[in-house]
Amino acid sequence: MKKKKRGLQEINAGSMADIAFLLLIFFLITTTMASEQGILNLLPPKLIGDPPIIKQKNIMKILVNKDDNLLVEGQWLQIDELADATVKFLTNKGADPESSDSPEKAVISLKNDRGTSYDRYIQVQNELRVAYNTVRNDESIKVFGVPFEDLNDEQQKYIKKVIPQKISEAEPASIGGDL
What we know:
By secondary structure, the chain is of the alpha/beta class. It has a domain at 56-167. It contains four helices and five strands; from the N terminus they run αβββαβααβ. A five-stranded mixed β-sheet has the order 3-2-1-4-5, with helices on one face. It is elongated, with a radius of gyration of 29 Å.
């Protein structure tokens, strides 16, 4: 008796392409894409005519050097002192003749060195935002008796008009470590 030779069995590969396609679709649908976060700032409207003339005392100059040191109005400050200095500048209302006349006229001028770290840049932006939020919140309580976040849209627009956020950013340049 002769034994029958068995041939190798083949794997049915007909559905392999379908399985691979389904897996591909599954991973495409379930994978989340990392989106970069940025700073949300609204650009001012296009200027028509001559630029407004701003008194030097209404401009708060902030310089950040390549070593991430802050020079604010000629004085070295730590990052945690920036919000308080900005609030004091915005709410001066002419009390100090060397500082701003009013929050409506106050402008924050920010200039960074090309070597300034991104982390320091974000910290400065956050401190300026805290200062504006503090001043707007105080004005909201004074005018409407409630915090800014509790106001309706129309009331918030009024407060933003009374206390506009004016931050002028110059193009980064090499301003040195010593400023």
